[in-house]
Description:
The complex is a heterodimer of chains A (302) and B (254). Chain A is an alpha/beta fold and 302 residues long.
Amino acid sequence: xxxxxxxxxxxxxxxxxxxxxxxxxxxxxxxxxxxxxxxxxxxxxxxxxxxxxxxxxxxxxxxxxxxxxxxxxxxxxxxxxxxxxxxxxxxxxxxxxxxxxxxxxxxxxxxxxxxxxxxxxxxxxxxxxxxxxxxxxxxxxxxxxxxxxxxxxxxxxxxxxxxxxxxxxxxxxxxxxxxxxxxxxxxxxxxxxxxxxxxxxxxxxxxxxxxxxxxxxxxxxxxxxxxxxxxxxxxxxxxxxxxxxxxxxxxxxxxxxxxxxxxxxxxxxxxxxxxxxxxxxxxxxxxxxxxxxxxxxxxxxx
Amino acid sequence: xxxxxxxxxxxxxxxxxxxxxxxxxxxxxxxxxxxxxxxxxxxxxxxxxxxxxxxxxxxxxxxxxxxxxxxxxxxxxxxxxxxxxxxxxxxxxxxxxxxxxxxxxxxxxxxxxxxxxxxxxxxxxxxxxxxxxxxxxxxxxxxxxxxxxxxxxxxxxxxxxxxxxxxxxxxxxxxxxxxxxxxxxxxxxxxxxxxxxxxxxxxxxxxxxxxxxxxxxxxxxxxxxxxxxxxxxxxxxxxxxxxxxxxxxxxxxx
Lengths: 302, 254
């Protein structure tokens, strides 16, 4: 039995969770083990059909006041209840901050090793043998072959290491349950929440990129990229409107175009190469670094 | 008053291409320096701030070889007032072993007792994502994972975490464990005075309490090199049409 912990957003299973279910489905297909999923808290409409397409036979939906707000220990208690019920040999979670946290809590509660950021599973040598996994270490620069000798083998799947590939249409069955959660597990839970403010689109983000920096009284009309490219790209006075071209940046996209997922940059557990800590890391460079030149847009020549 | 223990790990300061040792079991760090991870740098900063705000003390702890004193002295120079080294070969210790050894020190040893234990969210080299949670389980304390900022007041630690949909706030009673994610605070630089003071601080050295079970590592591998994906679209003005076609294909231009 393979149990996969699934995180959901309003549209269904989150992106990295879908990849994780694909990974678990492949493993289940190889070992012949049935695949079950655990969903804690809200269950979006259509989730059973969605997970059914990935080969999930049964969805265990944890409900109740204890899991109404997120808490790593409470969610792990919900997954642990399914592991105890099903006798799962492998527990898979997405490599998101919450997936990692739930898996780590579960591994600590069961006193078994855990492998984070797994990208592949080796030959397990048959039922009951140690599971061999390959996982990312050193920020993904190195792979580690690791053995998980105890059962259940707890692992998280690295985000975007596996393609999200649903299989044949199918529907999973639903089992709702209310996990028993100890008082101690309820101590560390989200007590308040502040949603991220939606960024307003930058000026010009909804307009098509045009040639020139806007039309002034008496100036020539705007030209589109296409008209400039048709043999006239070298015409005098032509320069791209970089302000308009900023629509390509991630931050300028309308918020609705990118639904909030646990793989968002804000939720990423990976070390940033541009964060303050990274700057501190590279402080030896600071003494030799030259002052960066300020970028200034090229004004069209008249 | 809140006394804070912050745990750091000595890790190779790798950048660019990574080399492995001949036996393939470790990163070859002969030609690189050592540092502490970015998450732990922020944890040290938070520990010093909390200790300063509450009138407590910040102590830094590392499990590693004798050379890890270098990282401990760096943290001392940043404002920690005490340091503990669990002297051991870190390659032999898995995350569960490390958590158990830290718990032996943090859970009421002769060395001291701490209200709050801070750790990095994950180690920069092994990326295990679990030592803090295992430590909390061993100590029987609540744990908040991936905190950007932490404040302590009236016996409660308030941590702010970047969740999938926004900023989540946790409030846990002390004693507690919090793992820190980089980005919430700007780590400070050590001052000359701080460096001078750090040299004089006595570092408590202890031996591991248990035989380690090990990390389960079989070997390390370098990922296969990615083939170059560069495609030359053309040169000069003749390439403009191909560039525009590509931009339209990408949805950048209409």
